[in-house]
Fold this sequence. Notes:
Helix content: 10-25%
Distance between the termini: 48 Å
Low-confidence stretches: 1-10, 291-306, 313-328
CATH class of the domain at 14-222 and 260-274: Alpha Beta
Structural class: alpha/beta
Oligomer: single chain
Largest sheet: 4 strands, mixed
Number of strands: 12
Shape: globular
Amino acid sequence: MLALASAVPAKAEQLAKDLFGAKKLPAATPPASYGFYSKGCLAGGIAIAADGPHWQAMRLSRNRRWGHPDLIRLIERLSREAVQDGWPGLLIGDISQPRGGPMVTGHASHQIGLDADIWFTPMPPERLSVAERERVSAVSLLKEGTLYVDDRKWTPAHAALLRRAASYPEVQRIFVHPGIKKKLCDTVTGNRSWLGKIRPYWGHHYHFHIRIACPKGSTGCTPQAAPPRGDGCDDSLAWWFTEEPWKPAEGPQKPPARDVMTMAALPKACQAVLAAPAPPSEAVVTLTGQGGVAAASAAPALVETADPASLLLSLQPADVPRPTPRPY
């Protein structure tokens, strides 16, 4: 009997991306980020509404409008203050899953609720439908087939939006395509200190990627080193305009980390985050912004709250009902 049992292969450990991707609501616990941006999870996350006074969230079916309360509040603030700078409103891409963790598709980072993608396409005056948000594409700012910005698409408002985002002390990095970084280096005058936060990276010509530092109280969050001093308009930027960064990788390619990552690779706290009860509904942990607006057509109605994070903290685990499946 023992010999027969030993011949049966052990069940493969389930991938972390499948476990976290299956969670439709956050962990009803105090807010905390665990691990590093590309290997961790999020407790006590809140969502940004599908529609706000100065934003529209895109790709609603992905359920990636969640983040640490510090990040969600910062996005709401950016949406308001960018309007003052002449930007008509934000189109918000992926932030994180309800409990963070690796995603089934897409990003390597965005795992601890401290990363957010904002489209370079300005928000249109009309409210997009749910279907349109799945179909409409962001517009690249590059000249086709080059590494350089298309001056027919680039405006001073793009630079002002990036300047505003970089002005917040909690923002540590903003990732953009090297061509966009070069455009800023070539055109920004006056105080250029904020350019040091603008970091060149592959992709990121359709959107920019905001990353905030580990929040206070998130002792399990692994910080990233601060960006190098200076404005970054130096030899490190020139490297991106050589052949080396764009050479195809040679030899067999390893699968993306998310496709092999199990719970054993994540901080131990992520087990508790995964097992934690959920809040009673998405609405009670959704930030709608000052005044609020109606949710996108065919999306659930969202209730404005003064501070979703405080509601989340007030919930007692024993009193939290199990959530019903979230409609799509």
